[in-house]
Amino acid sequence: MDQTFVQWKRQCLSRLDLSKKASVDEHIEHVVSLLNSCEQYFTTSSCSGRIILIDGAPERSDVQKQNCVWLFVSHKKCERDDVVCAVARSSGEAVLKFEPFVLHAQCRRLDDAQLLHSVAINSGFRNSGLTVSKTGKIITAVRNTHGLEVPLSHEGKLLVEHEYISFLTQIANQKMEENHRRIHRFYQNLQTALSTEKLKKLQIPDPPSSQELQDSPCRPETENGEADEKEDKIKTSVYKRRRKRQHHHQTDCCHGDGSSNGPEPEDCLDLFT
Q: How does DSSP assign the chain, residue by residue?
């Protein structure tokens, strides 16, 4: 499975960037580089967050970016005049949107995905989640819900005053600032989590204590071990009986004729068998 993941990573990182910008956004280059430098991750798509004005067809009830005209896009704070000038070019349904930071990363194992997901949640990206495909691809999506979507025109006609556009621009800029703060927090938390995980892998576990070995349910009790233990008990018992007989024999000799002769050589050898 690891080899398959390596192949997926190599193929993904070698492909051309198919986004409209055709490159990684400046505000998240450090985040993408960090993830891609880790053997257990690689990014599949990302956006640092943007303020956009898109113009959809009047007959459509929904706004789909692939079937509309992009009137304005910015990955940083914008001015009211930028939006006013852009909406003036609308011929359909102009919608002002703020879309927060989003990132998708493929992970080698489920544990790696859970770590990345935990970092995302703790950094304020509450809408993050995990998916596992039928082919075994594990994807972590880092995303949030503090977006903005407001229609400004209908059939090319402006529906709001310029003062309201100023208000919306201010709200969108505030969301962009908060978005950048969360990206910074995510990057810092990710660095810490990866460093901690690396240290855990490098640590050598302490050897088990004698009590742990004694209490371990996996401690083997082989038939040979039990037989050896029984044999040792038998030898000890025989040795004690022979020592006792030898003691009685020596006592009888001393009280009988004053002799202090010890046991025969064969008996001595027999004692230590």
A: -HHHHHHHHHHHHHSPP-SSS-S--GGGHHHHHHHHHSTTEEEEEEE--EEEEEEE-TT-SS--GGGSEEEEEESS---HHHHHHHHTT-SSEEEEEEE--EEEEEESSHHHHHHHHHHHHHTT-TT-EEEE-TT--EEEEE-----EEEE-EETTEE-S-HHHHHHHHHHHHHHHHHHHHHHHHHHHHHHHHHHHHHHHHHPPPPPPPHHHHHH-TT----HHHHHHHHHHHHHHHHHHHHHHHHHHHHHHHHHHTS------HHHHHHHT-
CA–CA–CA angle 242, 245, 248 (5° rounding): 150
Location of structure tokens 């359909």: 92
- Beta strand pairing status for 153-154 and 157-158? antiparallel
Contacts (Cβ under 8 Å, ≥6 apart) of 229? none
How does residue 246 score in pLDDT terms, banded at 50, 70 and 90?
A: low
Q: How far apart (Å, rounded) are the C-alpha atoms in residues 273 and 266?
A: 11
> If you search the block for the tokens 């989003």, which residue do you land on?
102
Task: Judge whether residue 48 has pLDDT over 80.
Answer: yes
CA angle centred on 96, ends 94 and 100, rounded to 5°: 145
Distance in angstroms (rounded) separating the CA atoms of residues 223 and 229: 10
pLDDT level of residue 153 (50, 70, 90 thresholds): very high
**Cα dihedral sign, 236-241-242-248:** positive
